[in-house]
Amino acid sequence: MEFVIVDIETTGGNPNQGGITEIAAIVSDGHKVLDKFHTLINPQRFIPNFITGLTGINQEMVESAPTFGEIAEEFYDFLKGRVFVAHNVNFDYTFIREAFKVCGLDFNVPKLCTVRLSRKAFPGLGSYGLGRICEKLSITISARHRAFGDAEATELLFRRIYQYQSEIILQSLKKGNGESFLPPHITQERYQQIPEATGVYFFHDKNGQVIYVGKALNIKSRFKSHFSGNSREKILLKSEINDITWVLTGSEFLAYLLETLEIKRIWPKYNGALKYQSSNWALFQYEDSQGFIRFQVSKNNSKIQNLLEFDSHSEAWKYIMEQTEHFELCPKLTGIQKTAMECYDHQINKCLGACCGKEKVEVYNKRAQKFIDSIQSEKGSVLIKEKGRSVNETCALLFENGILAAYGFISQEEYLENNEEILNRLERVKHIPETKYILRAFLPKIHFRNIIPL
Fold it and tell me: Which helix (DSSP H) or strand (DSSP E) does residue 285 occupy?
């Protein structure tokens, strides 16, 4: 039996949005290395600065690298017939499977996770992250957060488990058919019917009553993860579930929205209540003495008009940091950096110089106004187009004052002359204020052409 130990670097954490920037794969028989595969990948999209800071991979490094499509067949043959092994395997496996899917290749091989194997082989450790467990076992990682360095370390970790506790690996492979984790009332046949697609799923008890509602990018994978572990709640849920049903959504955005709607409608016994604190923090806008538009995260004040409200300071801070980078704003002028001189980003050529007189007010304020306009797009009525459940379908979402009001799916074969015809096709939903938080989280990820103010 041959195993292929894989590690990848990506532009983000979502296989439907992030792109692969590096792949490393090492073939092993459990005793020695048999073959290697390693390449940078051009993700055909922007690499965020924080990812470059973590991995060291920048845009220039991948410009001349092959795209995944260009190496897909070679890599597919390299993986075929071997057991796929990775640390936190579902991350690497899902990214690669989705990338193959885009290339028209169906990827489905047995897989093993060295996190789970390590928990069984080395119980009692405080952390099973790759860095920490390699430190405990005196395994050197030559290049942390680079694909080949992490793959080499993972191969050494896997070899350690295989040579001294091979029964753990063999047992895990036998369990891969799904029988070992399935709840007693869910058959293997029913499990195989669960789609590997994005949507909302429902667990039912013996009377057909919904006892849990969840969302997932991959419903089948998420179902399996529900029953790995021995917490009290998982044991109770496992004994009570008699069936699973699902609604496919196509997009993660709609999955989040429908999950919220269904939980508020049903209040299943195993779902914690949706709790949102009052909006104690807010984003404010003002103009300084030089005419620059500035922003500030501060405690909410009912006497002062704010741009946006947040449940926590960390949520507000994360939001303004993301938008500062997205709209190329000065971190000093958005309140992130406190300094009397130029901002630190200008010193490393990341800020265009509004903080030190090197950028004109009117030029900078145009970008600041675009940021404000993006916030205002949440208010009033807005129609958002998202991907549907297939390539020939579009999902339309209507938000009124930032809250989901209606949604529906429209075939691309249908010709609808105007937005009014689209709106007439949508299904109205109950007014659930919590959907505004979901809109706020996803709005920066949606292309502006798919956001239509009404």
Answer: strand 281-287
| 85 neighbors 151 (Cβ within 8 angstroms) | no
Tell me the pTM. Answer: 0.46
Give CA separation, 398 vs 380, 428, 430, 441, in Å: 11, 9, 12, 16
Using CA of residue 301, residue 302, residue 303, residue 307, what is the dihedral sign?
Answer: positive
Per-residue pLDDT tens over the stretch 137-171: 899 888 888 999 999 999 999 999 998 888 888 88
CA Rg value for the chain: 25
Q: Which of these is catalytic: 145, 204, 326, 431?
A: 145
Residues 6+ apart with CB under 8 A from 339: 332
CA dist 262 and 202 (Å) reads 9
pLDDT at 175 over 70: no
Is residue 145 annotated as a catalytic residue, yes or no?
A: yes
176 touches 93 (CB < 8 A): no
CA distance 272 to 186: 24
Give strand ranges (E) for 188-260. 199-204, 210-216, 243-248
Pairwise CA distance, residues 308 & 283, whole Å: 5
Give the single-character DSSP code of 361: H
Burial zone of 234 (CB within 10 Å; 0-12 exposed, 13-18 middle, 19+ buried): middle
Query: Exposed, middle or buried, 445 (CB in 10 Å: 0-12/13-18/19+)?
Result: exposed
For residues 449 and 260, give the distance between their C-alpha atoms in angstroms, rounded to a whole number: 26
* DSSP symbol at 445: G
Strand, coil or helix: 121: helix
Residue 30 CB contacts under 8 Å (≥ 6 apart), including other chains? 1, 3, 158, 159, 162, 163, 166, 169
- According to DSSP, residue 23 is labeled E
